[in-house]
Amino acid sequence: GDSVTQMEGPVTLSEEAFLTINCTYTATGYPSLFWYVQYPGEGLQLLLKATKADDKGSNKGFEATYRKETTSFHLEKGSVQVSDSAVYFCALRGLTGGGNKLTFGTGTQLKVEL
Amino acid sequence: DGGITQSPKYLFRKEGQNVTLSCEQNLNHDAMYWYRQDPGQGLRLIYYSQIVNDFQKGDIAEGYSVSREKKESFPLTVTSAQKNPTAFYLCASRPPDLNTGELFFGEGSRLTVL
After folding, report:
1. How far is CA A87 from CA A31, A44, A67, A105, A114, in A?
2. How many CB atoms lie within 10 A of CB B73?
């Protein structure tokens, strides 16, 4: 079945540091890929998405490129801020099974310090 | 404002009791989902419904039940048969555009079994 593997956290960075959170997936065909963000005590919000190979999703300074050859969708940001502290989830929408269900990774907690 | 409302935000339950978590949306979305979030395990799908009066089991449906009598409402009952119900529960809905795959989440309900 479909699965998503994320790097384990927590990740602690200083403000203005470069961020990479790794995400790889297993799925049949060409799934759609997503990054969601969860701020403390809240639900998840869509951060960015990519629906086909080589697409780059971007939002709020974050970027991720859909790499079919490496089955990866790594999240990057050039300069993180304290307000980016949150849990980040990589997810995919596979082509098998009904219901347009999303399969999520385990989440990576990011803490940004001054 | 349009969105998803979950209630209660915090709930305490004694062992052996059933509890019902409310999820209401005014986004006019057909599809709704219930996820369970545990530390280090990400989000796991409990039940989903693609249309009124229809729902399907997700990956961890045992010990849970749902109903979908109205488009706006998708309540989740955590029964006494659920062996480890303490968790954070997230309700989501999906826009009708099948190409996006994006989910809109509520702010969650935290259930603690005493």
Report:
1. 23, 9, 23, 11, 18
2. 14
- Concatenate the DSSP letters of all residues of B59-76 into one string: TT-TTEEE--SBTTB--E
| B7 neighbors B22 (Cβ within 8 angstroms) | yes
Provide the 3-class DSSP secondary structure of residue A27. Answer: coil
Which residues sit opposite A62 in a β-bridge? Answer: A59, A77
The shortest CB-CB distance from B43 to any of A49, A98, A104 is to: A104
Count CB pairs under 8 A between chains A and B: 57
Token pair 């999906």 is found at B94
Per-residue pLDDT of chain A (114 residues; tens, 9 = 90+): 889 999 888 999 999 999 999 999 999 888 999 999 999 888 899 999 999 899 999 999 999 999 999 999 999 999 999 999 999 999 998 876 666 788 999 999 999 999
Rounded distance between C-alpha atoms, residue B83 and residue B87, angstroms: 12
Asked if residue A40 has a cis previous peptide bond (ω within 30° of 0), the answer is no
